[in-house]
Design brief:
The complex is a heterodimer of chains A (115) and B (117). With 115 residues, chain A is mainly beta. Chain A has strands spanning 5-7, 10-13, 19-24, 31-37, 43-50, 53-57, 65-68, 75-79, 88-95, 105-106, 110-114. Chain A is built from no helices and 11 strands. Helices cover 0% and strands 51% of the residues of chain B. The chains are: A mainly beta (115), B mainly beta (117). Chain A binds chain B through residues 3-4, 6, 9, 31, 33, 35, 41-45, 48, 50, 55-56, 58, 91, 93, 95, 98-101, 103-109, and chain B through 32, 34, 36, 41-46, 49, 51, 90, 92, 94, 96, 98, 101-110.
């Protein structure tokens, strides 16, 4: 069964450093998402991406964050200058078509630790 | 705004007994509702969804969920729990009326289910 994959599984970085989290969505999916979960808190939506542009973003997704689909398979989340409060599990997801009734398929997550 | 509440951080149930994991939601319009399960070191795995129609929805691994509009609930159920069902369960909602291009899911905090042999 096709799966969303994410690398790395765990990333440790120092405050102020840039990090790039990588995701490979399911190959025939068209809609891509990033969510995050701070330890002990809810899974929160960050951004959705369709047709090579951001279609929706949350208040969390400020100028420090960016997303990119650099090629036909990868989908990346960049945090330009990490803060301690960016420490969280980051989940990538994809869905087959653009439609709210379609389930999103999630990757295993990248645990980001900012020291 | 849309929100989800999972009132129990943890649910313990004996193997073979029925299980229920509770979820209530709040949306301004009508909801799409989802249940996901997370096993250790794995991503959130889709279990089932309610879109429209029959209030009782059946999903993977013998799970089902009942949509109750008057109580704004979408509880997850299984008639007979297995030890392998032990995992973290997330309820999620999307407001149908939140606008074109808005497909974000709003999740609950998750409920840890432990099935005791």
């Amino acid at each position: 069964e096709p799966e969303v994959t994410q690398t790395p599984s765990h990333q440790v970085t120092q405050m102020g450093q840039e990090v790039i989290l990588r995701c490979v969505p399911i190959s025939n999916h068209l809609y891509f998402y990033w969510y995050r979960q701070i330890l002990g808190q809810k899974v929160e939506f960050l951004v959705s991406f369709y047709n090579n542009e951001i279609s929706e973003k949350s208040e969390i997704f400020d100028d420090q964050f960016s997303v990119e689909r650099p090629d036909g398979s990868n989908f990346t989340l960049k945090i330009r200058s990490t803060k301690l409060e960016d420490s969280a599990m980051y989940f990538c997801a994809s869905s087959e078509v653009a439609g709210g009734s379609y389930e999103q398929y999630f990757g295993p997550g990248t645990r980001l630790t900012v020291t | 705004a849309q929100s989800v509440a999972q009132p129990e951080d943890q649910v313990n149930v004996a193997e073979g007994n029925p299980l229920t994991v509770k979820c209530t939601y709040s949306v301004s319009g009508n909801p799409y509702l989802f249940w996901y399960v997370q096993y250790p070191n794995r991503g959130l795995q889709f279990l089932l969804k309610y879109i429209t129609g029959d209030n009782l929805v059946k999903g993977s691994y013998g799970f089902e969920a009942e949509f109750n509009k008057s109580q704004t609930s979408f509880h997850l159920k299984k008639p007979s729990a297995l030890v392998s069902d032990s995992a973290l369960y997330f309820c999620a909602v999307r407001d149908i009326d939140s606008g074109a291009g808005s497909y974000q899911l709003t999740f609950g905090k998750g409920t840890k289910l432990s099935v005791i042999p």
